Amino acid sequence: SQQGEEDPQALSIQEGENATMNCSYKTSINNLQWYRQNSGRGLVHLILIRSNEREKHSGRLRVTLDTSKKSSSLLITASRAADTASYFCAVGAGGTSYGKLTFGQGTILTVHP
Amino acid sequence: ETGVTQTPRHLVMGMTNKKSLKCEQHLGHNAMYWYKQSAKKPLELMFVYNFKEQTENNSVPSRFSPECPNSSHLFLHLHTLQPEDSALYLCASSQASGHTYEQYFGPGTRLTVT
């Protein structure tokens, strides 16, 4: 399966701390994307990293990609209570499934004020 | 969230009912998607439309029938559903599905089948 698998399943931290979430996948990818979902709402795209990139930044977000280990991590620095949400990695397929996104089960992040 | 809208936001229907979910995107995209999100399961891709043509049907039961009359509108027609079909149904759009672009999601329809 191409599905991304996030780790940990749940993460609880205090405001101001950093939060790190990991994603592993099994086959070749075109890119990997991270999304956020607030409870019962739609997903919001955060960042896309291509298979030939190793690191990408967007505001307080930092994403790394290690294609040799088939893994990615999302770091949220100086977390805020408003960052409380579920975070999903989505693997953008290569090969014959080009264009298809496969989502993992997500990491539930709780940031305490 | 105003880029992709979904109606209704909540729907309760009996197993013998027929209903439709509607999705509209105002982003000028050419690809639209239906996903199902059940508790404790990964987001499941159901259908993909690219320039109004269905390019993916992820082995979805025939009681779910998609319709894409143009690149801005997507429907999901529901009939004789089962209780296990209760879930959050999410619509998304992107520039095209021939290359992996970021997807923009609507707020979802919370469906309960009784």
Characterise this structure.
The complex is a heterodimer of chains A (113) and B (114). Chain A is mainly β. Chain A has strands spanning 5-7, 10-14, 19-24, 29-37, 43-50, 55-58, 61-66, 71-76, 85-93, 101-103, 107-112. Chain A is 0% helix and 58% strand. In chain A, the strands form 2 sheets. In chain A, strands 2, 4, 5, 9, 10 and 11 form a 6-stranded mixed beta sheet that branches. Chain A has a 5-stranded antiparallel beta sheet with strand order 1-3-8-7-6, with no helix packed on it. Chain A is globular. The relative contact order of chain A is 0.35. The model of chain A has no long low-confidence stretch (mean pLDDT 91). Chain B has 114 residues and is mainly beta. Chain B contains no helices and 11 strands. In chain B, strands 2, 4, 5, 6, 9, 10 and 11 form a 7-stranded mixed beta sheet that branches. Chain B has a 4-stranded antiparallel beta sheet with strand order 1-3-8-7, with no helix packed on it. In chain B, a hairpin with a 6-residue loop joins strand 4 and strand 5. Chain B is globular, with a radius of gyration of 13 Å. The mean pLDDT of chain B is 91. Chain A binds chain B through residues 3, 30-31, 33, 35, 40-45, 48, 88, 92-93, 98-106, and chain B through 1, 4, 6, 40-43, 45, 48, 56, 88, 90, 92, 96-100, 102-108, 110.
